[in-house]
Amino acid sequence: MKGSPLAAVLCAPGTNRDADVSFALQQAGATPISYLMTDLVSQPSRIDDADIIVIAGGFSYADALGAGRLFAVELEDSIGERISAAIADCRPVIGICNGFQTLVRMGILPGADCVAALGHNEAGVFDCRWVEMEPISKKCIWTRHLTENITCPIAHGEGRFTADSSTLSSLLKNDQVALRYVNVNPNGSVDNIAGVCDSSGVVLGLMPHPENHVVARQHPQFHRGNSGGLGLSLFREGVKYVNN
């Protein structure tokens, strides 16, 4: 298709970045529609027409029983098969922060044949700061054409990507490490991993929030002449993929 693809933004009680990611999607050329869990439970077919699926960040269900756990259960029960069908149909899916945690809990990331988890930050505390990350994967449709690093904030307590040596080796071999932290690893993630994709490349999960740096003035040092690398480029890649 050509034009403005429809992006379904999935939200649960406690998610708080849906408005931010909707703004980012609009800037990238998509038409976002937010769906609460009550919408999805009552009418699961709502996402069938979505060209892009986004799982918003925040603290779904207050992170009860672990970050993203209850959101994953709810999504799996209500629209799990529909999300799987969207992935099989090569429709882009992205989960940011709590959305990444949710995709991992669902077993969608880092892939059915790989085991990994997002643990508590190495420092043992919630961390909110700006970071820089480098796009690595040429398989991931969200990063494969990106040539500049992205600067954006993190805001999480459970963002440390962990995997055993065989899983990490598999992710590296299959080009599923999509993004790496540059200069500073804020949470102790193995191999400085900030985001991974699934084996098809259409599903991306990442801990930082690129939706919070899609216009230059959002950078904290904008008035000092520094605006870093915009996260908008990531969302534009998703829209371009749908429109090609």
CATH architecture: 3-Layer(aba) Sandwich
Give the helices and strands as they follow along the chain: EHEHEHEHEEEEHEEEH
> What's the main sheet like?
9 strands, mixed
Separation of the first and last Cα atoms: 7 Å
CATH class: Alpha Beta
Number of distinct helices: 6
CATH fold naming: Rossmann fold
Our estimate of the beta-strand percent is 15-25%
Quaternary structure: single chain
The CATH homologous superfamily: Class I glutamine amidotransferase (GATase) domain
Explain this structure to me?
This protein has helices at 18-28, 37-42, 69-88, 98-106, 165-173, 232-243, and strands at 6-11, 31-36, 52-55, 93-96, 117-119, 127-135, 150-156, 160-162, 177-182, 193-197, 203-206. It is of the alpha/beta class. It has a single domain (6-243), classed as Rossmann fold (3-Layer(aba) Sandwich), CATH 3.40.50. The strands form two sheets. Strands 2-1-3-4-11-10-9-6-7 form a nine-stranded mixed beta sheet, sandwiched between helices. α3 (69-88) links the parallel β3 (52-55) and β4. The protein is globular.
Secondary-structure blueprint of this entry?
Layout: E1 6-11, H1 18-28, E2 31-36, H2 37-42, E3 52-55, H3 69-88, E4 93-96, H4 98-106, E5 117-119, E6 127-135, E7 150-156, E8 160-162, H5 165-173, E9 177-182, E10 193-197, E11 203-206, H6 232-243
Parallel strand pairs: 1-2, 1-3, 3-4, 4-11
Antiparallel strand pairs: 5-8, 6-7, 6-9, 9-10, 10-11
Brief characterization of the structure:
The protein is of the alpha/beta class and 244 residues long. It has one domain: Class I glutamine amidotransferase (GATase) domain (Rossmann fold). It has helices at 18-28, 37-42, 69-88, 98-106, 165-173, 232-243, and strands at residues 6-11, 31-36, 52-55, 93-96, 117-119, 127-135, 150-156, 160-162, 177-182, 193-197, 203-206.
